Amino acid sequence: MNGVITVGMADYKTATAPELLLTAGLGSCIGICIHDPVLKVGGMAHIMLPTANGSLGGNPAKYADTALELLLKEISSMGANKSRLRAKMAGGAQMFSFPGKPPVLKIGDRNAEAVEQELKKHKIPLLVADVGGSFGRTIHFDVGTGELRIRTINHGEKVV
User: Fold this and answer.
1) Fold classified for 4-159
2) Are 130 and 90 in contact, with CB atoms under 8 Å apart?
3) DSSP states of 92-149 as a string?
4) Mean pLDDT of 107-134
5) Residue 51 CB contacts under 8 Å (≥ 6 apart), including other chains
6) Is 33 a catalytic residue?
7) Is the pLDDT confidence value at 57 over 80?
């Protein structure tokens, strides 16, 4: 079995083939996976909120804008070529709703949109987005193959 590196909430990690990156408990959070298919290096961030909004201090890995910046910097320092980077993401569910009330802040949607905007800004193609719904996800990302395995409760497992 390949080495599995666990990425916690508001965290990011990088890996080289044949290592796998894993994050569990993606509800409204987004798991963003980026990799260089030639060098076979990559990383994953478990993003909780769309933007740091200039907040200083705290954990920059918590926000789409600052976490992606950190992840790209680290992957580049491993030798990855920015023009070859590819991305896949999962999560962004609407986990809580109350009858007769509008969905609370739609944080899952906002997280997914923020990640997409950051990827566009950095000109990184988003190959797969498995987002939305009202169920949590656990993801495994193979930086060697770029394969993303998405497990959901009551919705099975798929590989993209």
Assistant:
1) 60s Ribosomal Protein L30; Chain: A; (3.30.1330)
2) yes
3) -------TTS--STTHHHHHHHHHHHHHHHTT--EEEEEE-SSS-EEEEEETTT--EE
4) 96
5) 63, 64, 65, 114
6) no
7) no
| 0.90 exceeded by pTM | yes
For the chain, what are the domain ranges? 4-159
Cross-strand bridge partners of residue 115: none
Q: Which of 15, 20, 21, 29 is catalytic?
A: 29
User: Distance between CA atoms of 141 and 136, rounded to whole angstroms?
Assistant: 16
Residue spans of alpha helices (H) in 27-83: 64-77
Mean pLDDT across 56-81: 93
Q: How confident is the model at residue 13 (pLDDT cuts 50, 70, 90)?
A: very high
The answer, yes or no, to whether residue 114 has pLDDT greater than 60, is yes
The two three-digit tokens of residue 130, written as one number: 């498995």
